[in-house]
Amino acid sequence: MNMEVQPEDLLREILVRLPVKSLLRFCYVSKTWCDLINSPYFADMHLSRAKSHRVFLIKQCLNGEKKALLSFHSDYLSPGRSIAGAAAAAPDLKLRSTHRARIKLYGTCNGIVCLAKLVPWSHSDSDKDKIYLCNLATRQFLTLPPSPFGCPDTFEDVCSTSLGLGFNPSTQDYKLVKFISYG
C-alpha cells in the first residue's frame, strides 16, 4: 500500500513536536507557516502531545526573602541543563503580594494559568482584586478588568472569595467563575 505524505502533513508532524518558543519564531518564516501554527487544529494537536510532559516551574519569593518555592516544567528541563539554569529561564511574572492579600494559583486549564490577588475587602481602587490569566509557554499575560461584584460593606469581615477556570470544548471558550460566600 503506497501512501503519499503531503508536505503540509509532514510539516505539521514536525512542528507539533517543537517547543512553543521555537514555534513563535517560525511564525515569521511565511504566512502559510504562521496560519498553520495559529490554527485551532494545530493548537489542539500541540496541547494534547504536550499534556503528558507538563510540569510547571513557578518561582515565589516568600516574605521578601531569597527563599523560593520551585516546581518544574519540562520545557525548562532538558538534557545537560542544571536546575539553576531551569530556574533562571522561567518567566518572571513580577506580581506583587501585599500585607492584605497574597498572589495565589487558582487553577490551570489547557496551559492557561489563573493567578489572582483577592483582597478580602477594600475601600481603595489601587488595592482591588487583581486576576491574571497567563500562558506560560508563550509568555502572554492578561490582566482581567475588575469585577463589578464583591463583598458588601456589611459582610466585609466574613466574606470569602475563590475562582474557578474552565474550558468549553464545544464553543472553544474559556470561562472564569468568581465565587463569593458570606458567613
TrEMBL record:
CDD domains xrefs: F-box_AtFBW1-like
Transmembrane segments: none
Signal peptide, first to last residue: none
InterPro entries linked to this entry: F-box-like_dom_sf (IPR036047), F-box_dom (IPR001810), SCF_F-box_component (IPR050796)
Database matches in PANTHER family: BNACNNG10540D PROTEIN, F-BOX PROTEIN CPR30-LIKE
Domain F-box: 1-45
Matching Pfam families: F-box (PF00646)
Organism: Cinchona calisaya
Name of the featured protein: F-box domain-containing protein
